Amino acid sequence: MLTDSPWLLIRLVNEPPLPDTQITAEFDEEGRVGGSSGCNSYGTSYTVDGNLIEFGEEMIGTLMACPDPVMEQERAYLEVLGAAATFEIVDDELTLFDPNENALARYQAVSQDLAGTSWEVISYNTGTQAVTSVIIGTEITAEFSEDGTLSGNASCNQYSATYETDGDTISIGPAVMTEIFCSEPEGVMDQESRYLAALETAEIYKVQGLNMEMRTSEGSLVASFKRIENP
Questions:
Q1: C-alpha–C-alpha distance, residues 14 and 170, integer Å
Q2: CATH architecture of the domain with residue range 117-227
Q3: Can you tell me the distance from the alpha carbon of 50 to that of 114, in angstroms, rounded to the nearest whole number?
């Protein structure tokens, strides 16, 4: 069951994660676990035997620097993994315990269901073998309805398209949109058309915590998103 879903940390030794940070864990069937440790990405091995769990001593990760409180949280989280001895999964929550059965970390399963979720686009594929951030002062959104409609703001105009998901695959149909012309900021109309064209190339998606990526079947990034928690 560890491999059924990505996991989002909701408690670290009984404290919630710092605001605007997210810590995740994704276990694969080959004995590897990785995710975001709040600032950097991390990865290590793991073994399980019944409800016993042990994480590898060798930890790999990126080397970004973040504000001191975030770095301290990251160190505490990685130390918790080293101290974990058992685990328990109840409903959609995973808890790691130390040898004395004290709760070290609690996670919530991350649903991959898009229906009823809303997202802000962070970056998108320009169609020229490049990925770019959204122009400052503009907003691109994506709202996935229960009836298979994807809609939102494409920067200037409102758009709507159909979507279908099956497991981790997704297909998005051609978009229809309003016909407003925006002259500012520079490049906004080009951004709009490139984003909508990129959506049609999406074939795989993955939700990790508050983030989501869509990619082509070859692995090229189509767009990255951040969840809008209260649209």
A1: 37
A2: Beta Barrel (2.40)
A3: 32
C-alpha dihedral sign at 11, 14, 18, 19: positive
Q: Domain coordinates of the chain in residue numbers?
A: 2-109, 117-227
pLDDT one-digit tens code per residue, 28-56: 999 999 999 999 999 999 999 999 999 99
pTM for the full predicted model: 0.71
Residue 194: partners with Cβ closer than 8 Å, 6 or more residues away: 124, 125, 126, 127
Q: What does the alpha-carbon distance between residue 142 and residue 117 come to, in Å, rounded to a whole number?
A: 8
The answer to whether 10 and 106 are in contact (CB under 8 A) is: yes
Regions of the chain where pLDDT drops below 50:
231
DSSP classification of residue 20:
T
CATH number of this structure's domain 2-109: 2.40.128.270
